[in-house]
Amino acid sequence: MPFRLIARSQGCTLSYTEMISANGLVRKTARTYEYLKTSADDRPLGAQIFGADPEIMAEAARIVADGGVDLIDINMGCPVKKVIKAGAGAILMKIPILLPA
Question: At 94, is the pLDDT very low, low, confident or very high (cuts 50, 70, 90)?
């Protein structure tokens, strides 16, 4: 959040959280929830989530929406090896059945 607020003070009108693990949100990992911290000056705010399991992704999206963000982005482009090995990020483009309709 501090970086987003600095960016906004320089004219940024829309900002996103860091990429947030859907598993971390569903498991209620404290460190993961830190990425969702925001303030009135940090609006509009988008949250980007990543994961591989459609049910966990859906639950994570509900958690993020209930947290009051203005939009949700599902990461389907991250090429980082550890993300791809987990079945998330860019690999989702190769598994269309997992993509949201």
Answer: confident
Catalytic status, residue 12? no
Q: Which residues contact 69 (CB under 8 A, 6 or more apart)?
A: 17, 36, 38, 45, 46, 47
Query: If we measure between CA atoms, which residue out of 52, 45, 57 comes closest to residue 14?
Result: 45
Q: Is residue 61 within 8 Å of 49, Cβ to Cβ?
A: yes
pLDDT recorded at residue 99: 66
Q: Which two tokens stand for residue 19?
A: 């990429």
Task: Give me the catalytic one of 19, 78, 91, 98.
Answer: 78
pTM: 0.87
Is cis: bond before 79, omega within 30 of 0? no
